[in-house]
Amino acid sequence: MPWFLLALAILTEVVGTLALKMSYGFSMLIPSIIVVVGYSASFWFLALCLKSLDVGMAYAIWAGVGTALISIAG
After folding, report:
1. Cβ contacts of 8 within 8 Å, gap of 6 or more
2. Which are the contacts of 5, defined by CB distance < 8 A and separation ≥ 6?
3. How many whole angstroms separate alpha carbon 10 and alpha carbon 70?
4. CB 3.0 to 4.6 Å from 19: which of 14, 31, 51, 57, for a disulfide?
């Protein structure tokens, strides 16, 4: 279950980051809401998975995979 939560944290962070570009400096309402919800959900899922996983390992995977997916999507 913690790995699934980490995967959800990564996916919601990627969605939030992709919506960040579409928000045009938070001037568009719907993408701005997606950014806030995406990042909030990402931190929440990351916090939940940290109950079972080490902080260093989970953060490294979260940051590394998230960055790789954003670079692929970009």
Report:
1. 41, 45
2. 45, 46, 48, 49
3. 10
4. 31
Q: What predicted TM-score, i.e. pTM, was given to this entire model?
A: 0.93
For 52, the 3-state DSSP assignment is coil
User: Is the dihedral angle over the CA atoms 29, 33, 34, 35 positive or is it negative?
Assistant: positive
Residue from 18, 3, 16 nearest 72 by CA: 18
Sign of CA dihedral 36, 39, 40, 41: positive
* pLDDT above 90 for 74: no
How far apart are alpha carbons 16 and 2 in whole angstroms? 21
One-letter amino acid at 66 equals G
What is the maximum span of the chain, computed from C-alpha positions, in angstroms? 39
Query: In the numeric block, which tokens belong to residue 74?
Result: 């970009």
